[in-house]
């Protein structure tokens, strides 16, 4: 084309064609609206995909990564698994924004169906994001090590003096309601984002119903795995507006439970026994930890009854009173609750062959308990990432995550009840006057729970938990020592 062509005036015919162009390209308002809605839907879908793939994890060296998880989470893992998960979420997701809340919820839901403590698995997941699989191992060790060392020390002290010391019992009685307050607040924080829709950030009533029904199922002693899987599937149907299949499944769960209860009786934890630890030898302790760790879906709460049946009822080498004590210590220490296995291994090894074997027993049962957790989380990291991003399974994990809140809530209220009322042992103490005095401590424990809960909601600094633990231990000497002196 010549310069003359570019500068020549437009002919009338050309001008007519130009005027016709807007007429040809003019779009009907309805078509514009449809295009806009399609674009908005595509944008929303892309946003959700971005939320599930976003990663801003810093690349840390292995020593720095170990110290990060050791200092920020291992030393501050007070209050049990619920509080630990809330702490990890608050620090890494909300404050430092390594990943989005949507991705965290999806990852958390995936780990609900894997064996092992979720808090440790989350630390390994973030370690993998920062420094690969080796980083995941280092992060997991950093989180677990403080609690393991403290439980090992507690096991040794227990062997030397026992926990019947009145000074220890006074402090421990004050700490129980404080730990219950920590779990209560942590349950609230986790539920904040577990029952909301990722797209609209509004509360999803179906996820709330899933949490409530799962809590009811837990009180009926319906198997936790059945409830979690069932509500994951039900929510998949609800998300696709398949109301009839969802309703049928919802009704069938209670019909099936009623039939089982009529013909077989109410489910009992004793049915979990396999008889794999009739004696507390090192190999038996390792196998006990390995099987318990493999069965610990949802954390320690499913491992506790299994270990109890094997060691207390079937094996008979661990007294019930000692087992209750080890669970109580596990609830107080900054560690995953499955660390109670360290105590069980220590006492079993001590019974089988003395103090040297006690330390070996504590180590081997702990290795067995955490091996499945490391194996599935580290070796299967890539597969887990694919599960997290799978659109078909996304609604299943959302439903599962909502249902888990019901399980956590029931456990929290059970711990709250026992921390205020005490244990059944308290009512059989002799003389009778001492038993009455111990029962009367419920009012003081309730006040401690209320004060601790108010402090936790007022102050958010991570040192608050340690201050509360220290203050509770001291306060117990003034509040409960006199009542326990006669024991």
What's the short version?
The protein has 22 helices and no strands.
Explain the overall architecture.
This protein is an all-alpha fold. It has a domain at 55-165 and 196-414. The protein has 22 helices and no strands. It has helices spanning 3-7, 12-25, 29-53, 62-74, 80-95, 101-112, 118-161, 166-194, 205-219, 224-239, 243-264, 282-295, 303-315, 320-332, 340-353, 355-379, 381-389, 391-421, 432-439, 442-458, 463-479, 481-484. Residues 1-27 have low confidence and may be disordered.
Q: Taking Cα atoms only, what radius of gyration do you get, to the nearest Å? A: 28 Å
Shape: globular
Average pLDDT figure? 80
**Per DSSP, what share of the residues sits in E-state strands of 2 or more residues?**
under 5%
Query: What's the total count of β strands?
Result: 0
Number of contiguous helices: 22
The description of the largest β-sheet is:
none
Features:
globular, 77% helix, mainly alpha, single chain, 487 residues, disordered N terminus
What is the strand and helix layout of this fold?
Elements: H1 3-7, H2 12-25, H3 29-53, H4 62-74, H5 80-95, H6 101-112, H7 118-161, H8 166-194, H9 205-219, H10 224-239, H11 243-264, H12 282-295, H13 303-315, H14 320-332, H15 340-353, H16 355-379, H17 381-389, H18 391-421, H19 432-439, H20 442-458, H21 463-479, H22 481-484
Helix pairs in contact: 3-6, 4-7, 5-7, 5-8, 6-17, 6-18, 7-15, 7-16, 8-18, 8-20, 8-21, 9-10, 9-18, 10-11, 10-18, 12-13, 12-16, 14-15, 15-16, 18-20, 20-21
């Amino acid at each position: 084309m010549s310069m003359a062509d570019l500068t020549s005036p437009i002919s009338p015919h050309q001008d007519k064609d130009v005027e016709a162009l807007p007429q040809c390209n003019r779009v009907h308002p309805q078509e514009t609206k449809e295009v806009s809605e399609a674009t908005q839907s595509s944008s929303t879908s892309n946003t959700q995909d971005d939320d599930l793939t976003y990663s801003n994890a810093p690349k840390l060296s292995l020593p720095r990564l170990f110290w990060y998880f050791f200092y920020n989470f291992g030393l501050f893992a007070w209050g049990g698994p619920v509080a630990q998960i809330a702490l990890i979420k608050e620090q890494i997701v909300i404050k430092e924004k390594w990943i989005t809340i949507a991705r965290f919820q999806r990852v958390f839901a995936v780990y609900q169906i894997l064996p092992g403590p979720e808090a440790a698995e989350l630390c390994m997941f973030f370690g993998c994001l920062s420094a690969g699989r080796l980083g995941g191992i280092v992060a997991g060790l950093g989180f677990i090590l403080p609690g393991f060392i403290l439980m090992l020390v507690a096991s040794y002290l227990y062997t030397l003096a026992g926990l019947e010391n009145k000074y220890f019992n006074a402090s421990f009685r004050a700490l129980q309601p404080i730990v219950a307050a920590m779990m209560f607040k942590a349950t609230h924080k986790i539920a904040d984002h577990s029952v909301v829709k990722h797209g609209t950030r509004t509360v999803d009533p179906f996820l709330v119903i899933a949490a409530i029904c799962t809590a009811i199922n837990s009180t009926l002693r319906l198997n936790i795995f059945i409830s979690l899987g069932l509500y994951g599937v039900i929510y998949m149907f609800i998300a696709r507006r398949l109301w009839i299949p969802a309703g049928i499944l919802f009704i069938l769960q209670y019909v099936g439970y009623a039939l089982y209860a009529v013909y077989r009786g109410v489910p009992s934890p004793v049915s979990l026994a396999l008889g794999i630890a009739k004696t507390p030898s090192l190999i038996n302790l390792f196998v006990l930890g390995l099987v318990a760790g493999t069965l610990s879906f949802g954390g320690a709460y499913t491992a506790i009854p299994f270990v109890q049946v094997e060691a207390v009822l079937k094996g008979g080498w661990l007294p019930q009173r000692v087992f209750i004590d080890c669970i109580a210590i596990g609830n107080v220490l900054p560690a995953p609750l499955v660390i109670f296995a360290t105590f069980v291994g220590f006492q079993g090894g001590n019974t089988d062959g003395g103090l040297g074997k006690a330390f070996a027993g504590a180590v081997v049962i702990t290795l067995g308990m955490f091996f499945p957790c490391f194996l599935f989380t580290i070796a299967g990291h890539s597969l887990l990432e694919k599960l997290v991003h799978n659109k078909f399974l996304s609604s299943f994990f959302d439903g599962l995550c909502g249902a888990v809140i019901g399980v956590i809530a029931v456990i929290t209220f059970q711990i709250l009840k026992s921390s205020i009322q005490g244990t059944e042992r308290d009512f059989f103490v002799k003389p009778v006057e001492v038993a009455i005095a111990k029962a009367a401590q419920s009012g003081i424990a309730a006040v401690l729970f209320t004060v601790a809960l108010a402090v936790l909601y007022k102050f958010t600094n991570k040192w608050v938990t340690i201050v509360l633990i220290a203050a509770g231990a001291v306060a117990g000497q003034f509040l409960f020592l006199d009542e326990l002196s006669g024991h």
